[in-house]
């Protein structure tokens, strides 16, 4: 649909920060490390807040024009890139540990930076946020993990978001490079059937449901009327978003059965809100997999152990099926990797059940469980590139259209050439595989890990892992 959007591209002075932020030294985030494997780890790590929650709550702060105080914010690349982009829009921010104070009350409609938005996938939610706040946007496109081949050569689907946002009175013009010009001339509420973007018209299935739900919540929240969102996909991050919107004065009322959400939006900017992000289930599963793969005992701490336990009941059930020993106490989860208790299992990821992002991590446990295991991803079909890292350390795998089979219990070997993951969870699998294999294995592509994990290399070193930063040859 053609757009007559006129972009406002005025310069914005650098925003003041109320607390100094000390960037970690470059050595803390090397692009590659040499991993000495074959040893046991041990100790305690603390999981950060959920990255997926952070990106949508940042977007909600902009959409509503509030001053937000957020705790549990992970120190990942996505945090830093989004804050830099928000600063260019006139927002101010400060960081103190895991607390971020983000003030979007004086934000201005400046064109988004392609240099920044194309680094991360979380920038996608700035598109509905800008439309909600300013009624117009020039979005250069998002980046992040490449999980397939989608429209206009993108690594994730995105045209469904534009279709959904049109229900709220938006219209768009899309360029061949994936950049989007959008305008919202009519601020209307909407009754949205989110199953329109499901792979199954009768059930919540597929990779488009999560982003469609979150974007609909963002636009509905900033519309001064009542919207109805039917069949939303309510994940951990979606619940965090709804809690934050409620704290900001938006009426968010889920049906008792979760089949729909009514949003009584607020049509004015301003005010304050506070929120705490949920502890990261995926980081928790990562440390559990690391303990199981290396026959180690790892204590996984969090300020909210009961909350974490409730959030990850599907993921805990998967650990149990694989024979991973674990127990809870008042401080978190302790995982003991005992090869004698591990057993094969077949795991399937569906929307609102076992997380698609957790599925690769379980294969690092399966490589130690004698026998034939399998994973099947029904959210991102074909997302099995991480199998290469298992193959390279001596784990037989077979990939088909139906899923990935892992034959565990074989003797591991060091990878003779560097493991080079191409996405965040693949990076975690590569590191765990290198730690489990004997001798030395080089792992590259760690920018993907830094984008999704808060100081993973530092935490591994604290557990006793021997990681030596190494240079990556220039291309």
Task: Using brief descriptors, characterize the structure shown.
475 residues; alpha+beta; UDP-n-acetylglucosamine1-carboxyvinyl-transferase, Chain; 2 domains; four-stranded mixed beta sheet; 22 strands; 29% helix; 22% strand
CATH class of the largest domain: Alpha Beta
| Overall form | globular
Distance between the termini: 41 Å
Give the biggest sheet: 4 strands, mixed
Tally of strands: 22
Task: Name the strands of the widest sheet in spatial order.
Answer: 2-14-16-15
Residue share in helix: 25-40%
What amount of the residues lies in strands?
A: 15-25%
The number of helices is 15
Which CATH-level-2 architecture of the largest domain? Answer: Alpha-beta prism
Overall SS class: alpha+beta
Taking pLDDT < 50 over at least 5 consecutive residues as the criterion, the unreliable ranges are 1-27
What is the CATH third-level topology name of the largest domain? UDP-n-acetylglucosamine1-carboxyvinyl-transferase, Chain
The CATH homologous superfamily of the largest domain: Enolpyruvate transferase domain
Protein described:
The chain has 475 residues and is an alpha+beta fold. The chain has two domains: 34-46 and 279-469, UDP-n-acetylglucosamine1-carboxyvinyl-transferase, Chain (Alpha-beta prism), CATH 3.65.10.10; 50-276, Alpha-beta prism (UDP-n-acetylglucosamine1-carboxyvinyl-transferase, Chain). It has helices spanning 51-64, 77-88, 114-117, 126-134, 159-165, 209-221, 236-247, 281-293, 305-311, 313-321, 359-366, 387-392, 424-436, 447-452, 456-462; strands spanning 33-37, 42-46, 67-71, 92-96, 99-103, 136-139, 170-174, 180-184, 191-193, 226-230, 251-254, 260-264, 272-276, 297-301, 325-329, 332-336, 346-349, 371-377, 397-399, 404-408, 439-443, 466-469. The chain has a four-stranded mixed beta sheet. A four-stranded mixed beta sheet has the order 4-5-3-13. The protein has a four-stranded mixed beta sheet with strand order 9-10-12-11, covered by helices on one side. It starts with 32 loop residues before the first strand and ends in a 6-residue tail after the last strand.
């Amino acid at each position: 649909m053609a757009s007559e959007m006129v972009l406002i591209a005025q310069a914005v002075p650098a925003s003041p920060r109320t607390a100094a932020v000390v960037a970690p030294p470059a050595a803390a985030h090397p692009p590659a490390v040499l991993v000495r494997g074959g040893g046991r780890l041990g100790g305690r790590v603390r999981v950060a807040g959920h990255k997926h929650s952070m990106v949508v709550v940042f977007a909600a702060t902009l959409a509503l024009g509030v001053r937000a105080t957020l705790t549990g914010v992970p120190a990942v690349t996505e945090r830093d890139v989004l804050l830099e982009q928000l600063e260019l829009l006139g927002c101010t921010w400060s960081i103190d540990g895991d607390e971020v104070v983000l003030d979007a009350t004086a934000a201005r409609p400046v064109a988004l930076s392609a240099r920044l938005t194309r680094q991360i996938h979380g920038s996608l939610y700035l598109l509905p946020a800008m439309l909600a706040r300013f009624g117009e946007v020039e979005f250069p496109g998002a980046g992040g993990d490449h999980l397939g081949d989608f429209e206009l050569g993108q690594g994730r689907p995105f045209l469904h978001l534009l279709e959904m946002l049109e229900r709220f009175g938006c219209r768009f013009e899309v360029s061949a490079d994936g950049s989007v010009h959008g305008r919202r001339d009519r601020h209307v509420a909407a009754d949205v059937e989110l199953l329109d973007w499901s792979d199954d018209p009768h059930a919540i299935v597929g990779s488009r449901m999560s982003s469609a739900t979150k974007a609909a919540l963002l636009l509905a929240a900033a519309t001064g009327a009542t919207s109805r969102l039917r069949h939303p996909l309510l994940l951990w991050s979606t619940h965090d978003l709804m809690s934050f919107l409620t704290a900001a004065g938006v009426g968010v009322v889920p049906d008792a059965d979760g089949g729909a959400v009514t949003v009584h939006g607020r049509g004015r900017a301003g005010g304050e809100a506070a929120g705490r992000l949920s502890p990261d289930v995926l980081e928790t599963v990562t440390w559990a997999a690391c303990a199981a793969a290396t026959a180690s005992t790892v204590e996984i701490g969090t300020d909210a152990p009961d909350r974490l336990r409730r959030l990850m009941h599907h993921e805990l059930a998967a650990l149990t099926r694989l024979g991973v020993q674990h127990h809870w106490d008042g401080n978190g989860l302790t995982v003991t990797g005992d090869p004698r208790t591990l057993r094969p299992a077949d795991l399937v990821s569906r929307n609102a059940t076992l997380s698609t992002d957790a599925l690769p991590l379980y294969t690092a446990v399966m490589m130690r469980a004698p026998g034939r295991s399998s994973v099947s991803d029904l959210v991102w079909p074909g997302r099995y590139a991480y199998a290469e890292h298992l193959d390279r350390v001596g784990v037989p795998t077979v990939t088909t259209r139906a899923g990935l089979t892992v034959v565990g219990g074989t003797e591991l070997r060091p990878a003779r050439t560097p493991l080079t993951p191409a996405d965040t969870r693949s990076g975690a699998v590569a590191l765990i595989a290198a730690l489990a294999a004997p001798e030395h294995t080089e792992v590259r592509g760690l920018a993907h890990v830094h984008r999704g994990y808060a100081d993973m290399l530092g935490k591994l070193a604290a557990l006793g892992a021997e990681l030596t930063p190494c240079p990556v040859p220039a291309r």
